[in-house]
Amino acid sequence: MEKFNSPQKAEEITSMSIGDTVIAGMDVVDDNKIRKVPVISNPAYLIEYAKDLRFKDLIESLITGVVKTPISQITSGSVSRYGVAQGFDGPGMLTVNAGKLVVESPQTFVWGFKTPYTYGVKTENGLAIVENNKTIKTVAYDNINNDTVPHEYLTVKFLKKWYNNSDNGDKVAIDYALSNFSDGRNKVVPSKIEEFFGESTVEYMENYPAGSPVMAYMHGYSMVNASSAVSFLGSYPQYDDSKRAYNARAFAAAWNGTIIPVNTVASGKETLGFTSSRDPHAPGGYASHGSCPPARALRAVSADAGFPLPTGMTWEYHAVSFGFNPATGIKVKNTGDNPVKIIMWTTGSGGNTKIYAKMIELVPN
């Protein structure tokens, strides 16, 4: 009789979707989805329940004549006989291997992309909070505050200003997910990012523009200095050396700590601003002077690492192309074999400011 009962597929018993992120201790099996089969065709299953001291299930099976397939028959070592994820570190991924439900340990590097997930949409009645094209709630204008709307990326002040200058139906992204992961795992919604990947990942996302690659998890790697460069600000009093030094420091801060995974393109932080100096020779009469020296340092370490000329840059002395924001407009493409991390800092002040840049390669052990 046993051959007439086709085995249940592992993906049919999950409490979540295949491809979801899992951490140790999570229950990944839904007992209610496990198929019951005749006891007469599977008497060995009773022994499994006896071993687990699941006497209630054992007695029920003897009375009804049907028994649930033991979890151990359709899971592997990374999922316990009770359906709990175990035996791995970091954010794993639920999958099926050789017909068994398993949790794959995370690779050395796991990255995704900052993706708009929650929108604020202006309506006649207030601000509609929309996720996956579904309105979660509507908040009256006077009730827009930190308790009623996500505020990690946009302040309440900015949101109200946007509301007052928008038309009904206009929308603005107010919260972000991680998607298009390097290992193929499913999208992780905003409320789960810190639980799975830590507070530092959320903080990184808060600083970088939408669409940026975000290294969500790293382990088992070494940092190797791939290239380094130094640039000097110099003194040009006609453009206000104090403003130029401010822009040089802002550029370095915007790019410091930026991680660029393999075959991705990244910019600097969007949370850093630049100041303008009067320049009669510049289009519009103003320019963000002081950003070119640190740009030359960033260009040098990128070139030394074998990367192409960053978008928004030229090979000339004036390294930043006109119209490109020095932080978010410039983009570096990693064409190497491993992720890299950009380190930038400054010393000195005024025209004596020095800008340092390093390209650190993250090499798996």
Description:
This protein has 365 residues and is an alpha+beta fold. The chain has 7 helices and 18 strands. The chain folds into 3 domains: 103 residues, no CATH class; 107 residues, no CATH class; 145 residues, no CATH class. The model has no long low-confidence stretch (mean pLDDT 91).
In short:
This protein is of the alpha+beta class and 365 residues long. It has helices spanning 44-51, 55-64, 156-164, 190-197, 199-207, 241-255, 292-304; strands spanning 21-22, 36-38, 66-68, 92-97, 100-104, 109-123, 126-131, 134-139, 171-179, 213-218, 221-232, 259-260, 265-266, 277-278, 286-287, 332-333, 340-347, 354-364.
Helix content: 10-25%
Biggest sheet architecture:
5 strands, antiparallel
- Shape estimate: elongated
Overall number of domains: 3
Which regions have little confidence, pLDDT < 50, spanning 5+ residues? none
Q: What series of H and E elements makes up the topology?
A: EEHHEEEEEEHEHHEEHEEEEHEEE
**Number of alpha- plus pi-helical segments:** 7
Rg, Å, rounded: 28 Å
Counting helices, strands and paired strands, the structural category is alpha+beta
Q: Gap between N and C termini, in Å?
A: 52 Å
